[in-house]
Amino acid sequence: QVQLVESGGGLVQPGGSLRLSCAASGFTFSSYWMYWVRQAPGKGLEWVSAINTAGGTSYYQDSVKGRFTVSRDNAKNTLYLQMNSLKPEETALYYCNVYRYGINYWGKGTLVTVSS
What we know:
Shape: globular
Radius of gyration: 13 Å
Mean pLDDT: 97
Helix content: under 10%
Number of helices: 0
Structural class: mainly beta
Strand content: over 45%
Largest sheet: 7 strands, mixed
Order of helices and strands: EEEEEEEEEEE
Distance between the termini: 40 Å
């Protein structure tokens, strides 16, 4: 079955950096676009970034452009999100996501807390 496991979250000071990872299994990772989505406390889901199958094309929410970088390693079935210059309002659970045969799959998320 499809499994997505996020890691790399933690507590970071404003302006700091974190690198999130998402280990994927149960499907042909290299055949699917992958996404990062976040949910701040008390708020709805917010799309952050997307990357195509080969990793050569990526898209970002305007607020993270120039600070976040999405990448993937298809040999390792792993998705990454490098986050720099983090802001307190970016405190959230960060999820990786794949849409496959009409179903959205999610991991359990990794918590990023940006606070001094």
